[in-house]
Amino acid sequence: MEETRDQGNPVIQKVEEKDASSLVAISGHPLHAMSVHFPIAFVFATLGVDLLYWWTGDAFWLRVGLWSSGGAFFLGMAAGAVGTAELLLVPGIRARVASWAHAIAAMTLIAVMGANWGVRATNLLDVLPQGLFLSGLSAVLTGIAGWHGGKLIFDHGVGLMVSSKD
């Protein structure tokens, strides 16, 4: 029913007419969509590592957490740079409100990941409770940013390049 109502909305029709295919891609494969997987994995790995440190008290997990949080932050910065380029370069992406919601959630996530890595890089003893809290917050923000990113791809077709063969 909502689809029928939206089809008559001239604003939505105008937005949907704009091309939202990826400009930052290799052979039609969008770099942003390809680059987010490692930071996401590192966010959840850091949360797991923090929980293992809390449970065991083994200093090994402090070192692993330093590396995994650093990986999450720096690879997240790279993915964010590519995503920002897409947002700014493609009018069809910029025109969608969901793109901005995804961008804001992702930028907040990158800031929290940076704080999480910074806590560990400056003083490994601050992992409990600050690092564990930041790891949990990062996981929640990853879910929020991922939800909005998925909606952009699956509901709006943002970043997709469909070949004439399809």
From TrEMBL:
Keyword Metal-binding attached: no
TM regions (residue ranges): 36-55, 67-90, 97-119, 131-154
This protein's UniProt keywords: Membrane, Transmembrane, Transmembrane helix
The keyword Transmembrane helix is annotated on this UniProt entry: yes
Domain (DUF2231): residue spans on this chain: 28-159
Pfam families: DUF2231
Ranges in a coiled coil: none
Name under which the protein is recorded: Putative membrane protein
